[in-house]
Amino acid sequence: MSTPTPLLRATLLACVLVAGTAAQAATVWNEAVNGDFSNLGASPSLLALAPGSNLVMGTTGRVNGVVDRDYFRFTLPPGQQLDTLTVMPGTVALGLSALSFIAVQAGTQVTVNPTGGSPAGLLGYWHFGENDIGFDILGVMSVSQGAIGFNSPLPAGDYAFWIQDTGNGTATYHLDFGVSAVPEAASAALWLAGLAVLALPRHQRAAVQRPPRARSRATRLACSVWRSVTSPCCAVASWRWASSSSSWLAPPSR
Ligand SMILES: [Ca+2]
User: Fold this and answer.
1) How do the domains of the chain map onto residue ranges?
2) 93, 133 contact by CB (below 8 A)
3) pTM
4) Å from CA of 84 to ligand 1 middle
5) Residue 25, pLDDT above cutoff 90
6) Residue 145 alpha carbon to ligand 1 centre in Å
């Protein structure tokens, strides 16, 4: 058996580290344990998210004519980003539409009137329910009609969330906020270059270590992949807007 090159060893180690990070999970707030979230957009409850999985569990709904609105916020420090917001099993919405409402605003407060008629000021929102279980809704929130919109993943910064269900009874939501460290340009390029090298047959992987004049056509192709991933054009994300005709607080029909 041949001895792995330093590049191969580094790539395999990175795979193990990434797998280990993805496996981490933590409940950052469970209303049954930690108490009801703030009902005021001006003073949301503070969460401490960390790289990996961050579970948030709570209830909302209308009891005795009063809507339990939940507001919470968190700060993503420099070097971290919110990659996903996944609806988890256990989520149960109310009403004929069986949809709850979630919104995000930049900053430490939600200043949008919860009974107003406009989502202006929100970064995004979505109506979620059991049909969303297992799905990441961050992307659809980013293109909600009438909101500011954002590019997903959410970068470092302060974010305030608002969840409500105005149906009669108690709705339950289980949400997983997926946070990761932002890959540095140099390490990302090394990672992708390592994957390109791994895709080569053994003799061509060895050729990567040889001087340029001795490299084969396939090896030169791997090198071109490395150059392409380091190109600034790869960092340009597209900006999308929704064409949905649904109103913002009224759950859409689907
Ligand atoms: Ca609550």
Assistant:
1) 23-181, 183-235
2) no
3) 0.68
4) 22
5) no
6) 26
